[in-house]
User: Which sequence fits this backbone?
């Protein structure tokens, strides 16, 4: 057997081997652009969709919390106003220091009327 010649050490079509990672002259190298912005027509990928859903959910929860807080504040304000009126009516006194029965009777009348409504 004859030993092979040194010439036939390339690709079978005669082109020489290029090193790993090298690109031909007519090809553009492929680099991943992590910070590249997407074109307007492209769909968002799964992580972006998840992030958008999370943000929407967080915004809805924040709006719900704000609504609940506003309702609670309104209820507390109404209760404080009612309690202040009651305290003023009960704390009224005559010149001699006796409690004023007229205001207490009006307060009791309001309570009775409220109980009848409910």
Assistant:
């Amino acid at each position: 057997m004859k030993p092979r010649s040194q010439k036939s050490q390339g690709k079978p079509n005669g082109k020489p081997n290029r090193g790993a990672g090298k690109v031909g002259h007519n090809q553009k190298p492929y680099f991943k652009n992590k910070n590249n912005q997407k074109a307007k027509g492209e769909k968002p990928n799964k992580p972006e969709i998840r992030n958008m859903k999370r943000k929407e959910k967080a915004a809805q929860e924040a709006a719900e919390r704000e609504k609940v807080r506003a309702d609670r504040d309104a209820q507390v304000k109404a209760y404080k106003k009612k309690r202040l009126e009651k305290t003023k009516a009960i704390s009224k006194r005559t010149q001699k220091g006796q409690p004023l029965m007229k205001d207490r009777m009006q307060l009791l009348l309001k309570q009775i009327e409220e109980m009848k409504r409910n």
Observations:
- Helices lie at 46-91, 101-117.
- The chain has two helices and no strands.
- Residues 48-117 form one domain.
- The two ends are 115 Å apart (CA to CA).
